User: Fold this.
Amino acid sequence: MDDLAGRTAAEDVATDPCTGPAEPADPIDLVGMDRAVLAADLASLGLPAFRARQLWHWVYCRGVTDFSAMTTIAKPLRAALARRYRIGRPEVVRAERSNDGTTKWLLGVADAHRIEAVHIPEDDRGTLCISSQVGCTLTCRFCHTGTQRWVRNLTAGEIVGQLLHARDALGEWPTPPDGRLITNLVLMGMGEPLYNYDNVAAALHLIMDNEGLAMSRRRITLSTAGVVPMMARCGAELGVNLAVSLHAVTDELRDVLVPLNRKYPIEALLAACRSYPGASNARRITFEYVMLDGINDSPADARALVRLVRGIPAKINLIPFNPWPGAPYQCSPPARVDAFADIVNAAGYASPVRAPRGRDILAACGQLKSDSERRPRLAAAG
Ligand code: SAH
Assistant:
C-alpha cells in the first residue's frame, strides 16, 4: 500500500471532502510546482498535508500521468483532483535514434515551441542532456543553437518535463534500484542555464528532491558559457557540478567564439571558478574546449590552457567540433587533437576527448537546434 499515511483508499472516503477541490478554468500542472506551494494549495482546499506527499509520490516516483491510476486515493477524490490539476508532459514531436544508441527527442512545449533533449547510453551510465531555453541569446560562433533566434526561457515544469518524458520513453518507472538508463543529467542542451537561473534552480530542486526523483547533485552538471555574476549563487544554492565553456585562451579569440566574453572576460571567469563553492579535487570543474581546425588547437594554445587553469581543481574536456550545415569551422584533425590532449595530460589534467555521439542524427554536443522554423508541421512520431 502506497498511502504515505498508511490509510487505505476506502478510508479516504471518510476523511476527505469528496465534493473535492474547486475547479480552476485551466487545470494547474503539478509538474514544476514547488512542493510547499502544492501543500498550501491542498490545505486551502481542506486537504491534509499527507495528500501532497501522496501526489508527489505518484508524480515523481511512479511517473503516473493519470489520476485514475492513483490507487491509494479514493475514487471521488481522484476525480476531484483531476478536475483541478493535470500532470503535464511535453508533446513528442519526433524521436530519432542514432546507430550508437543515442536518442534525440524533439519536444513541443507551450506556445508551439520546440526544444530538444538527448539520451546518451554508455556502459557504466546513461546521461540525459536537457535544454534550459527555447533558442539562445549567446550566439556562440560554432554553436548550432546560436544560429536560432532566442524565444523564451523554459519554465521549471518544462525543464523537469524533459526528464519525466525521457523516463517514460525509457520505461524507468518506478525508479529501478540499479542498472538505470538515466544516471546523470547535464544542462548542456539548448540555452544558457544561468540566464534562466530561477526556473533552472526550481527545476533542479524538484529533480534533487529526496522524496521524488532524488537525483544526487553529484550526478548533475550545469554547463555555462560564463555568466560570472550567477556562478557563486549556483554553487552555493544548488551545489551541482559546474562545466565552463572556455574554448579559447585569449580574450581576443574568445570574444569571437563566445561573445559573452566581452562582458565577462577570461580573467573574471577564472576568478569565479577559483571561488566556486564546493569545487575540490574530488569535485572538479570541467573546462570544455571545442577543437576548431586551425583556430584554437595549436600546441601553444594547449600550453596556455594549462597555465590558465592552474590552481583550479579542473578537468579539461576536449570536444571535437561537431559540424552542422553551414558551420563556419571544421573539426581539428585527430592528430592535432591527440597532440593537444598529450600536452594537457602531461600537465596533470585528466583530459578525456569526448567521443562524439549521435552525430548521424545531429544530436551531438552543440548540434541541437529545434527545426520548428524549417519544418513547422511535423506529424507526431513516437
Ligand atoms: N550555454 C551553455 C550550455 C549549452 S552548450 C554553455 O555554453 O555551456 C553545451 C556545450 O556544447 C558547450 O560547451 C558548447 O560550447 C558546446 N558546443 C556548442 N556547439 C558545439 C559544436 N558544434 N561542437 C562541439 N561542441 C559544441
